[in-house]
Amino acid sequence: MTGRTWVRLDNASNIFLAARTDADPKVFRLSAELDHEVDPQLLQEALDATYDRYPLYRAVLRRGVFWYYLQDSDLRPLVSAEVQHTCAPIYQADRRTLLFRVLHHRRRINLEVFHALSDGTGALWFLSDLVTAYLGLRYPEAGRDLGTAPEAGAHPGAASQPAAELTGTAPAGRLQEAPVHELTADSFAHYFRRHRRDQEPATDAARPARKRVHRVRGTRTPDHRTRAVELTLPARDVLGLARAEGVSLTMYLTALFFESVRRSSGGLGRNRTLAVSVPVNLRQFFPSTSARNFFAAVRVEHTYGEGEDDVGSVARQLEGQFRPKATPEALERKLRRFIRFERTPVLRVVPRPLKDLILGLVNRANNRGLTVAISNMGRVSLPDPVDSHVGRMLLHVSAARPQFCAVSHAGLLTISFSSPFTETGHVREFARHLTDRGIAVSVAAARVTEEELRWVETGVEAEVEP
Questions:
Q1: CB neighbours of 62 closer than 8 A, spacing ≥ 6?
Q2: Three-class SS string for 96-142?
Q3: Which of 86, 87, 139, 279 is the one with CA 20 to 30 A from 227?
């Protein structure tokens, strides 16, 4: 060991290491689309300035006898042009490298992150600050208005988001005067490891037996690259559909995703239950400036053929399941149980390779109970001097199963579908549902097979035909 700062990974991050595969390397991408072609030299200057304020992002991943740990490094990141497919693998066990990369392609700035390092919120803070720093250099008059440090416990410029959107977070970037996203900060330990004398032991009712869920099958992409398809549409129009049904945007989009999978499958067969994992940003209930993973997952499901199955009814049922599970009290009970399991003396002395095996088995068991996954980052805002220079913002995720990620900025909602399979029937059904209701949808897709996608080539927009 050296004198460098280091911190052990918790099991929430360890599971990304145990669960990564060739098809799902546990990498996600956040992108910002600007109003001009990216200047690589200015982007490198902005990255240098931003990187110095994020000690967490200087870390490399090391392997110990009993656990993985993050260790501070003196490596420096370099921006590069995009040459690989989206969400290409980052972590390599035999190489000492940073766990993120910054890419540029035409008008886009892309930040790709290995999920064991940071979650979507932490990465959004980094990207927001990076884009803000870049635009401050590109437009000096805007740069002169920046530089305010955030208040303790919150990131500056967070968008005011409706309370119904419990899954999203929308912090904006701003040049900071001091590092706040430290390597050693552990929000799980801070909030959930300490003993609560005033908290009675959880007495949750017995959980009903889970039903066998429908699992999407398909043709794997030839080289394991992620199939990514982007839909762009007016945020206000889609939010209007959700409000008309009396549900949050997240649950409306999830119900529509279920319906799209059902229609594209040609029938669900005997397994008529569809289940989804919905990430919840814990910072909205337990304030933290840590950019490390700090989220929980809530599972909701719907069984077709046992009641009303239209999109609105399904969305209301999902909302009814989700809200009680996503309260601070329910999340705290769940996470304290998880932390107690993590701190079990026997588990703590289990060698790391065996921990990987155990966590891998846990992950596979969890996957068998899920049909799809979703993530809604909510509405993102940037500081006023630079916000007008940014159009769409996007989130891609490498996927073990069909998934969509939603981000809203500048009045545009971008829904990025990712999948390990070549088939895109569920995306087509999703878009058709929206266009049938008068919403203009544009589609962009990346090629992953020898045969050209029928819709569009990479980066070209086209109206979806009903």
A1: 6, 68, 69, 70, 71
A2: CCCCEEEEEECCEEEEEEECCCCCHHHHHHHHHHHHHHHHHHHCHHH
A3: 279
* Gap between the Cα atoms of 320 and 316, Å rounded: 6
Distances (CA, A) of 44 to 48, 178, 279, 386: 6, 20, 32, 18
CA distance 255 to 308: 12
CA 343 to chain CA centroid, Å, is 27
* Two structure tokens written together for 460: 């070209």
Integer Cα distance of 223 and 237 in angstroms: 37
pTM: 0.88
Name every residue whose Cβ is closer than 8 Å to that of residue 99 and which is 6 or more positions away in sequence.
57, 59, 60, 61, 90, 91, 113, 114, 116, 117
Residue 370 near residue 401 (C-beta atoms within 8 A): yes
Distance CA 108, CA 460 (A): 14
Task: Report residue 363 as tokens.
Answer: 């992950």
> Rounded to whole angstroms, what are the CA distances from 30 to 14, 142, 306, 396, 414?
22, 23, 39, 7, 12
Q: Which pLDDT tens digits describe the chain residue by residue (466 residues)?
A: 356 888 888 767 888 988 898 889 999 999 999 999 999 999 999 999 999 999 999 999 999 888 899 999 999 999 999 999 999 999 998 889 999 999 999 999 999 999 999 999 999 999 999 999 999 999 988 777 775 333 333 343 333 333 333 344 344 444 444 445 778 788 888 898 765 545 545 445 556 677 899 999 999 988 888 999 999 999 999 999 999 999 999 999 999 999 999 999 987 888 999 999 999 999 999 999 899 999 999 999 999 999 999 999 999 999 999 999 999 999 999 999 888 877 777 777 889 888 888 888 888 888 899 999 999 999 999 998 899 999 999 999 999 899 999 999 999 999 999 999 999 999 999 999 999 999 999 999 877 765 534 444 433 344 333 2
Q: How many Cβ atoms from other residues are within 10 Å of residue 187's Cβ? A: 20
Query: Is residue 445 within 8 Å of residue 232, measured between CB atoms?
Result: no
CA distance linking residue 116 with residue 10, whole number of Å: 9
Tokens of 252: 């409306």
The answer for residues whose C-beta is within 8 angstroms of residue 370's C-beta and 6 or more apart is: 213, 275, 276, 277, 299, 401
Q: How far apart are CA 294 and CA 122, in angstroms?
A: 9
Buried b (16+ CB within 10 A) or exposed e, 89-99: bbbeeeeeebb
